[in-house]
Amino acid sequence: MKRDFSYDTYISHTHWLGRIFSVMVLILLTGAPFVIGGILGAMPDLAAAGRGFLAVGLVWTVSSFVEYLVYTPMLGAGGSYLAFITGNLINMKIPCAMNARELTGAKTGTAENEVISTLSIATSALVTILVLAVGVALMIPLQPVLRSPVLRPAFDNVVPALFGAMACRYYRKDPRLAAVPLCAMMILFILVPSLTSSTSFMIIPSGAIAIALSWLRWRREKKEAA
């Protein structure tokens, strides 16, 4: 039977299910140490955990808030819930969603982007689970290959290669705009190598540079047109 599709109803149900599963995952993640500690008779030291969180948690809290503001408009409701629940946004979910959006021509903030992002991220999560299952099953037989000194440099540079390939197609669209934040971040990382471990946090200044340059160019073109 033919059924009428309501986008508002779809979004409402997506938020309802997303909130329920987000709370469930949060409870499972935070409750696992206490359940394991109770079974083994070795409960976590809450004071030590609190000190450890204060040492790194404040930085990652800011980074998480920034990622939420940046990625949610790109992914839509369904894609955002799936991505934040399954994790590994920067390495897997965001590149997959952006590539799917580029291939289909979907625009940010549209119903098409909502559907495409949700499907692409769900596919990415399922493929990741399948690859991990195969990797665990073949971990022992593949030990000589994984520990090979010849392949070690390749494994150490998987993430830079992934982001380089993904960024190339966007740099080609506007090389002059991309060159300034790219060079600025390269110089900063060379001068302060410790920042390489805070790439998520460095999205803020690099994104601010790109946005500021785009806005200045837009104002200049608007004045020239006037």
What does this structure look like?
This protein is an all-alpha fold and 226 residues long. 80% of the residues lie in helices and 0% in strands. The protein is built from nine helices and no strands.
Quick synopsis:
This protein has 226 residues and is mainly α. 80% of the residues lie in helices and 0% in strands. The mean pLDDT is 83.
**Shape annotation:** globular
Largest sheet: none
Q: Write the element-wise H/E pattern from the N-terminal end onward.
A: HHHHHHHHH
How much of the sequence lies in strands comes to under 5%
Topology:
Elements: H1 7-40, H2 46-86, H3 89-104, H4 111-137, H5 143-146, H6 152-156, H7 158-171, H8 175-191, H9 203-225
Helix pairs in contact: 1-2, 2-3, 2-4, 3-4, 8-9
Notable traits:
9 helices, mainly alpha, single chain, 226 residues
